Sequence to fold (223 residues):
Amino acid sequence: MTTKRAAIFDVDGTLVDTNHLHVVTWWEAFRQAGHRVPMGEIHQAVGLSSGDLIVHLLGEDRDPDDDEQLTAAHHALYATYFDRLPALDSAGDLLRTLAARGWEIVLATSASGAELSALRSAIDADDVILGSASADDVAEGKPAPDPVEQAREIADVLGEHAVFVGDTVWDMKAAVRDGVAPVAVLSGGIPRADLEAAGARAVYQDVDDLLAHLDTSVFADQE
Fold:
């Protein structure tokens, strides 16, 4: 009997080239609210849920009454790009190749609603995506294990039979905490050393590079 396996993917910065769009739109949202937050610090926080990102960057002593307005401003600014979000090279091809090899494909992302729909449209691989664990589905976002665990539950697999691919430190920490194999890509702009320190078992330039080396990857080890 063939063991069911799950290939779980982060989306922003992993399958779709959006991290720097998030940096710019969060920077503008903070600026409009009177906060000066360096773009480098925002970049390091991309991948957190909106609420966690705000706490991470502004601290616990901020006025929490402003959080909803900041989130809404970011969403409105980022939504102007929804019709032209760029998938990274081979994103759809990688998902289809893994699906053809028997992997259940699930997304684990802090995006939800119209944003998630726009991202999935950019990837253009809904025919092989089983489902997604979004910010609406879990109590805590990455680096908590909840999104990865929820994705596994969608695929109905144990942690030892799952691989999670992401581009941020938060992704790697979530994968480690859930007990799945963490694989990183550099397409989100986070340094290799940071990803490895957070637990990445292997690091690739991007999903195109991962696809080219699929037969010698963690995925091959589980086949």
Remarks:
- The chain has a mean pLDDT of 96.
- The chain is about 45% helix and 15% strand.
- Strands lie at 5-9, 103-108, 129-133, 162-166, 181-185, 202-204.
